[in-house]
Amino acid sequence: MKLSENIKKYRKLNGLTLEGLANRVSCSKNYIWEIETGKKQNPSIKIVCEIADVLNVTVDELIALPLKGTSSEIDVFIKNFMKLEDQAQRGLMAQVNELIKIQQMKRNI
Hints:
- The protein has 109 residues and is mainly alpha-helical.
- It has one domain (3-108): Orthogonal Bundle (434 Repressor (Amino-terminal Domain)), CATH 1.10.260.40.
- Helix content is 72%, strand content 0%.
- The protein has helices at residues 3-13, 18-24, 29-37, 45-54, 59-63, 71-83, 86-108.
- Helix 2 packs across helix 3.
- The longest helix has 23 residues, at 86-108.
């Protein structure tokens, strides 16, 4: 299942409307709708974390990707990431993106 489908599924399982979820997350009803319909392909990690928290699921359950590491390790990382100030989050994401580029370049050699 895709992120969009999982958010919709867990939102309904929690008895929340689009507006109800949006009110508990720092975004608009329209933004949630765009995520659920696939119009918004890459929502921010911050919003995905907030949605997961409200829906009482882990981020990896929402994104439904096979991730390395245990679910608890990933959850701890994400919770710690969310504790960082916005500037620190952006800096960490920039570093992660650089590491991904380096790894991709190594694969192409």
